[in-house]
Amino acid sequence: MTIIESAVEINLPIEKVYAFLSDLNNYQELMPENIYNWSSTTNEASFTIQNMAKLAIKISSRIENQEIIALPTEKPPFDIELKWTVTANENGSTTAKHIISADLNMMMKMLAAGPLQKLVDYQTQKLKEILG
């Protein structure tokens, strides 16, 4: 299993960061330009990644003010789990960590690990920009 992660500190209480991340409608704001055909509800989202694939995800579990896990609803090219964890810091801010776990063979790892790392880094930075 390949684990790709990125963390960011946000100057908001954990409840606000969790509330934003627990609604998939908000994720469109976290996506780079190569994502299009976006469609979402609170619990599900589908989109197309330019030159790659169409993906549909659904929140499979929520632990309030701790974590949100989303899994593909259709069979993806490889097994993948998208997870956000939130942790309260002593100064009143929140650390949000985006973790992608993907079952990649060696060839897929060479092709996908870089773009997936760019995606999680982009999404954590966008989260910080949006929530300040």
From TrEMBL:
InterPro entries assigned to the protein according to its UniProt record, in alphabetical order: Polyketide_cyclase/dehydratase, START-like_dom_sf
TM helices/strands, residue ranges: none
Gene3D superfamilies reported for this sequence: 3.30.530.20
Domain of life: Bacteria
Name this protein carries in UniProt: Polyketide cyclase / dehydrase and lipid transport
Origin organism lineage: Bacteria, Pseudomonadati, Bacteroidota, Sphingobacteriia, Sphingobacteriales
